[in-house]
Amino acid sequence: RTQTPAPGARARTEPQLSSVITRHLVLAAAVLQFGCGGSGSAPETPPDPQPDPGVQNLYALGPPGMPVGVAVPAGGFANSLLASPARQTLVANHFSQLTAENIMKPSYLHPDEGTFFFDDADELVGYAQSQGKTVHGHVLVWHQQVPDWMTAFTGDAAAWKDMMTGHINGVVQHFAADDIVTSWDVVNEAFADGDSDGDGLYDYRHTIWYDNIGAGYLAAAFRAARAADGNADLYYNDYNLAGVPAKLSAVLQLVDDFASDPDPVPIDGIGFQMHISLEWPAIGQVRESLARAAASGLKVKITELDITVNTEGNGDPGPLTMLTSDVALRQQQRYESIVAAYLDEVPPDQRGGISVWGIADVDSWRRSQNAYEWPLLFDDDFAPKPALQGFADGLSGH
Ligand code: XIL
Predict the structure, then answer these.
(1) Which residues line ligand 1 (CB under 6 A)?
(2) Contact, 245 vs 203, CB < 8 A?
(3) Which stretches of the chain drop beneath a pLDDT of 70?
(4) What is the pLDDT of residue 51?
(5) How high is the pLDDT of residue 41?
(6) Nearest to 55 by CA among 398, 390, 397
(7) Which of 31, 130, 341, 389 is 20–30 Å from 250 (CA)?
(8) What is the pLDDT at residue 314?
């Protein structure tokens, strides 16, 4: 695994000395030939061909203050950001917020009951702080990457609730003071992928939390998070919200229930994971879903964007074993249209920002599902892909 930028990537970002010299020579020749500042028509110098410098600073193209984030490996992972100058350069240049891809999940932060392990997360949060970046906390309550002791926990609903809120409190309080972790995914993926009773709302997922505490675990989790940090934005996060209306309906119903509680349950935002593909969901569906979420009045954040390109259900674009230039172009356009949809449909004061789920294709979790995937903005050698330009155009077109 190479740790330095590919030569091609470097060439795109360094000043092109030869073209600078050429330009000065052309200008000098024009001054000699026509004089300077005299009357008469301006000399017709040939158009000055400037090399396209590419995207230098992705997040600066977006609305001021709107986070443009990235999920990063850290801790003991071989591809840790903290051990990779190539990744650090990309993160420094292009992203204003970090999400820990794994190391702030319960199995990492809370390996034994009552024993928290914060070293790796503190190192990452400290790094973010040193770089002037914020952190989106991921994740407090989920059914995956749970430590064994939680899975094996025994007790009644009250004991389970205390155990869950004890975890939330221990973690959120730890990061509350320095204001780098500015938001949290409080609950992740609480809904299943079906509507068994036909009420138009997807069902609650049967997890250790639902099965042991009941649906009230969600309200309890959000209340505990708010009690531990009065400032951080609290998100409900899930996948397929942009493509499955009945799943989004279930989330919006939850938000309504929170608001109509006699003692309203604190929640600040809805996180759309957005693990999507070239054609699914259709862009109209994405826009409609973002608009529905924004109509709740809460913040809307794209938390885990990646765009797979290999064969879709209908066989398009056909099985790929390399990223062809026409598919890379389709991915560029898709990134642009998703970012543009977000900025169109989510009003400025409700924009929690957009984060991609990984730095370079070589890091992407989607590779564990299909080795032939290229879902992110940078390639296996850390060089920018057309996708980066697409994201940038989506940001700067607004
Ligand atoms: C994934 C990570 O990317 C993988 O490295 C890990 O093995 C499993 O989890 N939805 C989420 C993320 O909320 O936490 C998941 O991250 C991807 C799907």
Answers:
(1) 101-102, 188, 273, 304, 365
(2) no
(3) 1-47, 49
(4) 73
(5) 54
(6) 390
(7) 341
(8) 76
What is the Cα–Cα distance from 207 to 229, expressed in whole angstroms?
Answer: 26
CA of 358, closest atom in ligand 1: 3
Residues 342 and 347: their CA atoms lie apart, in Å, by 9
| 371 Cα to the center of ligand 1, angstroms | 16
Does the predicted TM-score (pTM) go above 0.90? no
Atom of ligand 1 nearest to the CA of 71: 3
Protein residue with its CA nearest to atom 15 in ligand 1: 101
pLDDT of residue 25: 39
Helix axes 283-294, 325-345, angle to 10 degrees: 30
pLDDT of residue 247: 98
Please give the backbone phi and psi of residue 49, each rounded to the nearest 5 degrees, phi first: -75, 115
Residue with CA closest to ligand 1 atom 12: 101
Catalytic residues: 189, 304
| Backbone torsions φ then ψ of 298, nearest 5 degrees | -80, 165
Report the mean per-residue pLDDT for the chain.
90
What distance in angstroms lies between residue 328's CA and the mean position of ligand 1's atoms? 24
Q: How many angstroms is it from 365 CA to the middle of ligand 1?
A: 7
pLDDT, position 35: 37
- Residue 162: CB atoms within 10 Å: 15
How far apart are the C-alpha atoms of 336 and 394, rounded to whole Å?
Answer: 4
